Amino acid sequence: MLDVENLAAGYGRVQVLWDVSLQVQRHEIVALIGPNGAGKTTLLRALSGIIPVAGGTVRLHGKPINGRSVEDIAYRGVTHVPEGRRLFAGLTVRENLLLGAWRRRDKNLEPVLELFPNLRGRLNQVAGSMSGGEQQMCAIARGLMSQPALMMIDELSLGLAPKVVEEIMQRLPDIAASGTAILVVEQDVDAALTVAERAYVLENGHITMDGQAASLLADPKIRMAYLGVA
C-alpha cells in the first residue's frame, strides 16, 4: 500500500535521509526504530508532505504522492500522529476528534470510542487537562476519525508510564485489523517489536536492517544496542 523507494530528504541544504526504502501493506503494523537523531521523525514528515522530498518516490496504492500538499496527502488517506501529540489543548476532546474528521461527511465518534473507552466520559473535557496517556489516546483517535488507509505514529510512548504504553499498544492490532495500516516510530524497542509484524532500523539517515519484527527482537545486535542485553 505504501511503497517508499530511495527517498532522500532533509532541511534546506542539510540532508538527513539517504536512499530510504520501505513498504507497509494493508492490515500491517510496521515499526521504525533507531537512535535519537537517526532521521525517524524527518521520514514521517517527508511522507506526510510537511517537508519536501529531495529524491526518490513515495507511492500510496501505487500512485506517487511526493510533491503533493499536506492536505492532499491527508485526503488520499495518510494520517500523522506527531511526536508530543499536538492536540488543541484549549478545545474539548469531542472538538479535537471532530477536527480529525474534517474530510469526511461521516463524523460518527462511536468506532474510536469503542477502541478508547476512556475517552467516552471525557468528551466535554478540555483536552489539555487530561493525563498524558489520555491525550495520546485522543491524538490517535483523532487520526482515526478520517478513516485513513495509513496511520503514522511518532513516539507513541513519549512521556508515558509503561502500563499506559502497553494499554495503547494493545489497541494497534485492532486498528490494523480494521483496515488502517500502521507505521510506528518508537523508542521503546521491545514494545514496538512485540506488537509489529515487520520492522526497519534507521541509523544516520540510512536503513541498516529490516525483517520480521520477532527476528530483529532476537538479533544480538539489536538487543545489545537498544535493549542493553546480549
Automatic annotation (TrEMBL):
Ranges of residues in domain ABC transporter: 2-229
Tagged with keyword Transport: yes
InterPro entries, sorted: AAA+_ATPase, ABC_transporter-like_ATP-bd, BCAA_Transport_ATP-bd_LivF, P-loop_NTPase
SUPFAM superfamilies noted in UniProt: P-loop containing nucleoside triphosphate hydrolases
GO molecular function, one term: ATP binding
Coiled coil feature spans: none
Annotated Pfam families: ABC_tran (PF00005)
SMART domains xref list: AAA
Keywords assigned by UniProt, alphabetized: Amino-acid transport, ATP-binding, Nucleotide-binding, Transport
Family: Belongs to the ABC transporter superfamily.
Protein name: ABC transporter ATP-binding protein
